[in-house]
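quick q for whoever's on today - can somebody do inverse folding on this one?? i tried earlier but teh output was garbage lol. tokens:
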């Protein structure tokens, strides 16, 4: 089963900060974060992805792509550590 969580509100009221805390781009100072029954506060972004977190940032041009990269290179962002995508070609 897949759950979809959306964060809404008036721009500037902390939604982007909350996004960053949930996915692990910013460190939490206090409180807890439970993902699928697991405390995730001290987990890395990669560990949180393994728990099933998917993330589409509110500003995709600023936070989800690199303008100088090709479409293929941008597609691979986040998967570069997987053997299927990082094999060295002679």
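ok took a stab at it. sequence:
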């Amino acid at each position: 089963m897949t759950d979809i969580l959306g964060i809404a509100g008036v721009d500037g009221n902390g939604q982007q900060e909350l996004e960053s805390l949930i996915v692990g781009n910013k460190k939490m100072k206090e409180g807890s974060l439970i993902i699928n029954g697991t405390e995730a506060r001290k987990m890395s972004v990669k560990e949180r992805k393994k728990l099933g977190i998917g993330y589409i940032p509110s500003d995709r041009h600023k936070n989800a792509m690199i303008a100088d990269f090709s479409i293929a290179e941008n597609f691979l962002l986040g998967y570069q550590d997987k053997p299927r995508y990082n094999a060295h070609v002679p």
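fwiw The chain has one domain: 15-86. also The radius of gyration is 15 Å. so keep that in mind when u check it
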